[in-house]
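Hey,

Quick one before I head out. I ran the complex with magnesium ion overnight. Inputs first:
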Amino acid sequence: MEKASFKVNTKSVLEEKVLDWNLVQKSFEKSFGAEIYSSWLKNISLLKEYNDYVILGVKTRFFRDWITSRYADRILSELKKYKISINRLEFKIEPDGVGTKTLFSNPATNKISDIKESVLNYNRLNPNLNFENFIVGKSNNLSFLSAKKICSQLSRYNPLFIYGGVGLGKTHLLNSIGLELSKNNNVMFISAERFMYQFIKSIKKNEMVNFKDFFRKANVFIIDDIQFIRGKEGLQEEFFHTFNTLFDQSSQIVISSDRAPNKLDRVQDRIKSRLSGGLVVDIGSPDLELKLKILRKKISDYQNSFKENPDLNEDVVNYLAKYSNSNIRELIGVFNRVVAFGKMSKNPLNVNDCKIILKDIYNNSKVVSIDKIQNATSNFFSITLDDMMSPRRSRPLARPRQIAMYLAKKLTPRSLPEIGRKFANRDHTTVIHAVKTVEKLLENNDELRKNVEELKSLILSD
Ligand code: ADP
Ligand code: MG
């Protein structure tokens, strides 16, 4: 009996052992080498330690992304040397001098300003996201013009509904509208998520009257990422009433969403119909020309603010634009990463350097062809290519076929119909089914996961 409890104690003591961060840092230096250590790892701080994971602090998003993409696995195994129970890392961005602000810190403020303070804290208009630095191309021209238009003619189009995929500039445009109009109007700019937070908080504190008053005071109401209300009945109810009140008093309403109004499933029909009752415009993916324009602007911004050249030659700029995914946020991230790296290297970067630097983002996807995937896969599973492409459904053929389709989706930029055509003219729904099946198997089937990983690295390695 005593023995048993002794055992339990030892275990828990061992697990709660506190990491000696200085010691860990020393072992980082030893295992990663002085250069990587001093460039990337030295400034990581230990913010919080739990039994099975730690929260590490880094100064910027760029650092976080860099460290997680290249060193996270090794950092984890170093930590495990000191504390075996750790199996996960989390990173938190802790810029210098920014403490965590507490909400509602001033008890003397009245209730309306409680809400106001909270909204202002989280929904400040960002002066850097304005019309002047929004680069216009084919894909966003209409949204841009519409945004400008409502600024000169309030309520001409009401509501203005802008939709498009992630990282394409929706928040940037909404923010620009807010900046422009806040000169002469009472502008409320809030994300749907924050709107909900405020809403729930007000219900809990019995302050719905204040909530309503506060939001309905705006004569310009801008709400970002409205798709967030999907499936949330209570929130939709409140939003509907807020919308109607604002609309009736001719307040300008601007909304962004990741999809068109009619595609907002689990949203009440009456809301969808209100949302599409004004002007609906979409922001599309940038074409090569727009991506180049954005990169050129970034280069000149860089020159202006740092008084030096980012040293990217034309080939590199073209490479970044051509092979980036259609996401402007990512394009800018890639630009920053390449410039930062270039500044640390002795010679100007060439395209090959960029390929290495961006390997985890671009995943070399554009150099892998579907043919290559098909050949490698059939070889790997020791079946003939003909058999793999044939309509036969026996598992030893069907499984490799599905894996090849899955890899084609993951490693190439080809669309589902294109992939289907490459697989003996199969329908795109067959490809979807294959991708889903493999994804599911990867979750629970260790052997298959190992095989797919191995095959993938074979394909990517040469
Ligand atoms: P979304 O809200 O659609 O996900 P954001 O508005 O947050 O996208 O844009 C992502 C990033 O790309 C931001 O840094 C934004 O400033 C930048 N960006 C997007 N579109 C443009 C553009 N046309 N010109 C300049 N920067 C842009
Ligand atoms: Mg956004």
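The pocket of adenosine-5'-diphosphate (ligand 1) is lined by residues 129, 133-135, 140, 166-172, 294, 328-329, 332 (CB under 6 Å).

Talk tomorrow,
K.
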